[in-house]
Each structure stands twice: as structure tokens, then as C-alpha cells.
């Protein structure tokens, strides 16, 4: 699904950028141009960023637990 119509950025592209190390909206803006024109995509992009970072942290936490 397109998140940023102005720059033709999809949710998949945002998730790939996050998987590649982007951790802030500033980094997403620099890499993909999200939020650099009309700004209507910022809320949705922030939500995707937050959700993906939470998923990454949960994965790290689950891997850090010792085996029973």
C-alpha cells in the first residue's frame, strides 16, 4: 500500500528501510523522502516505524532469554 503518494513510497519500502537500520523519521525522510512534501503521510509512517521497532525489540528480547 502506498503511504506517501508524493514520493511513491510503500509500507513495504518503509519496512525494508527499518530492517536496514533506519530508526527515526529523520532517517526515513533522508532515505525515502517520506514526509518531505505535503506531510500527510507522516502519521502513518510514524506508526509503521513504531510497530516495526517494537517487533524488532520483541525478537531481540525473545532471543536473549535463556533456554529452559
Helix content range? 55-70%
Give the class from helix and strand content and strand pairing: mainly alpha
Give the strand content: 5-15%
Low-confidence stretches: none
Strand order of the largest sheet: 1-2
Gyration radius, in Å = 14 Å
Q: What's the order of the H and E elements? A: EEHHH
Number of helices: 3
Structural notes for this entry:
The chain is mainly α. The protein is built from three helices and two strands, in the order E-E-H-H-H. It has helices at residues 11-19, 25-32, 42-64; strands at 2-4, 9-10.
Describe, in short, the structure shown.
The protein is 59% helix and 7% strand. The protein has 68 residues and is mainly α.
Give the helix/strand layout.
Layout: E1 2-4, E2 9-10, H1 11-19, H2 25-32, H3 42-64
Antiparallel strand pairs: 1-2
Helix pairs in contact: 1-3
Name the features.
two-stranded antiparallel ribbon, mainly alpha, 2 strands, elongated, about 60% helix, 3 helices, about 70 residues
Amino acid at each position: 500500500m502506498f503511504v506517501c503518494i508524493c514520493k511513491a513510497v510503500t509500507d513495504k519500502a518503509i519496512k525494508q528501510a527499518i530492517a536496514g537500520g533506519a530508526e527515526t523519521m529523520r532517517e526515513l525522510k533522508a532515505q525515502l523522502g517520506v514526509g518531505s512534501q505535503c506531510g500527510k503521510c507522516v502519521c502513518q509512517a510514524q506508526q509503521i516505524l513504531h510497530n516495526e521497532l517494537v517487533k524488532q525489540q520483541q525478537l531481540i528480547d525473545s532471543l536473549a532469554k535463556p533456554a529452559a
